[in-house]
Design a protein that fits this description.
301 residues; mainly alpha; Arc Repressor Mutant, subunit A; 3 domains; 0% strand; globular; DNA-binding transcription factor activity
Length: 301
């Protein structure tokens, strides 16, 4: 994402918070971002697209933070999963997105609804996979059922507590309580085999959320362009990590777990530099690519 686009997104977010989504005009955004009308329309066709970009930026921050939390830990560590789930609330609060979500619920724009659906499905898929990591392969057929229930419990717990107490619940406390409930649910499901979210349903969900598939050639092209912009003034470690990722993506066999471990340090190497935004985009792309490769590896033949 280039500097101008990020500038517009940040200006739009603040205006949506200050004035509300409905009362903010495109002219307001252009003026606040200090860009020309042409520059705005080069990146966005409407203020709804600005709102979508805000949601996607938050999603990317969550993904990056989750990768960093999992660095040098065991996949079956429940405490890591708890932290990863709690991150969502922390990011939303830090970016003041709760007010913006209120506007989303009142908006009937089909494009916005489609993006929200895809983000929800991606979150369900991620959590189902993490439940298998933590609780074992034997719960695979129940993983989507539990992921859907867990996300609903977390969301409504925050909402009810805020409505009644006028205070924000501690994310870690809510998530820990929900995970305890999920463990009880798993025990019940394994005894009764009573599943609402069947394999047919979650395969249909996966197809509904299908995006442009991230390929190694796409990432190689992006990394090659990125490394060409680096200069001798950039940190040597950052250059080494970028070249390592490029070499791995060009190899016949990708070491998934080593690459996943490298991503956070690659990302951190470019923090507070002119390359930070692009390094983050590359990290997200590689992370998505690794998830695809893991799914292919774990899929039954």
């Amino acid at each position: 994402m280039n500097k101008r686009k990020r500038q517009i997104i940040h200006a739009a977010r603040q205006l949506f918070l200050d004035k509300g989504f409905n009362d903010t005009s495109i002219i307001d955004i252009i003026s606040s971002a200090n860009v020309s009308k042409g520059t705005f329309y080069n990146h966005f066709s409407s203020k709804v697209q600005c709102l979508i970009a805000i949601l996607e930026e938050a999603r990317e921050e969550i993904i990056t933070a989750r990768i960093e939390v999992a660095l040098n830990t065991r996949p079956n560590d429940k405490n890591v999963l708890q932290k990863q789930l709690a991150l969502v609330a922390h990011v939303h609060r830090r970016q003041n997105l709760i007010q913006i979500f209120e506007a989303i619920f009142k908006n009937n724009e089909p494009e916005l609804k489609q993006v929200i659906e895809k983000q929800l499905i991606r979150e369900v898929e991620w959590l189902a996979s993490r439940f298998i990591d933590v609780y074992g392969e034997q719960i695979r057929e129940y993983s989507y059922e539990c992921a859907v229930q867990a996300l609903a419990m977390i969301q409504h717990s925050f909402r009810i507590i805020a409505m009644v107490t006028k205070q924000l619940a501690t994310p870690e406390d809510v998530v820990n309580n929900v995970l305890n409930h999920i463990e009880g649910m798993l025990a019940h499901l394994q005894k009764t085999n009573s599943i609402l979210i069947t394999s047919d349903i979650f395969h249909a969900l996966h197809e509904k959320a299908e995006e442009t598939k991230v390929t190694s050639s796409m990432l190689v092209h992006q990394l090659e362009g990125f490394t060409e912009k680096l200069t001798p003034d950039d940190l040597e470690n950052g250059v080494e990590y970028a070249n390592y990722l490029l070499k791995e993506l060009q190899a016949n066999s990708v070491n998934l777990y080593v690459m996943e471990a490298i991503l956070p340090v690659f990302n951190n190497a470019f923090k507070d530099t002119p390359h930070e935004a692009e390094a983050n985009e590359i990290s997200i792309g590689i992370w998505r690519y690794l998830q695809i490769k893991k799914e292919e590896k774990n899929s039954p033949m």
